[in-house]
Amino acid sequence: MFVINENEKEYRFGDSGPKYLMKGPRMNFALVQFMPGQDFRAHYHNVMEENFFILEGKIDIVVDGTVHTLSKGDLIHIEPGEVHYCRNAYDVPVKMVSTLAPYQEVDKVEVENPVY
């Protein structure tokens, strides 16, 4: 058992990207933030499934070439092998929860970002 406050961790890219509150042993749990115009490299996972739950703002998440525009209260589930890409094309920051399971130390495969 442990307790952690999000203020104890930092976003990977300063003001954006994932902020992992837990990595393993069975799943990852992160807060993810993107400022307007920011994005995250397209990738897929071989084993882990990923969920994004939107807390604030609006974001486009492209999954296997299909654009899904999500906003507060929306959840998207992404299966292993599905290429996904996040882009904040809007004028407000987006904040979301990301979960990945089952935990794998290395499971992300980056690919070329789609053009849309």
Would you kindly provide a written description of the structure presented here, covering whatever features stand out?
With 116 residues, the chain is an all-beta fold. The chain has a domain at 32-89 and 97-103: Jelly Rolls, CATH 2.60.120.10. Helices cover 0% and strands 52% of the residues. It has a five-stranded antiparallel beta sheet with strand order 1-2-9-4-7, with no helix packed on it. A five-stranded antiparallel beta sheet has the order 6-5-8-3-10, with no helix packed on it. A hairpin with a 2-residue loop joins β5 (58-63) and β6. It starts with 16 loop residues before the first strand and ends in a 6-residue tail after the last strand. The mean pLDDT is 95.
Query: Order of strands in the sheet with the most strands?
Result: 1-2-9-4-7
Query: Roughly how much helix do the residues carry, as a percent range?
Result: under 10%
Tell me the radius of gyration: 14 Å
Give me the strand/helix succession. EEEEEEEEEE
* Secondary structure tally: strands: 10
DSSP strand content: over 45%
Distance between the termini: 43 Å
Question: Low-confidence runs (pLDDT<50, min 5 residues)?
Answer: none
Name the structural class: mainly beta
> Any idea what the shape is?
globular
CATH homologous superfamily title of the domain at 32-89 and 97-103: Jelly Rolls
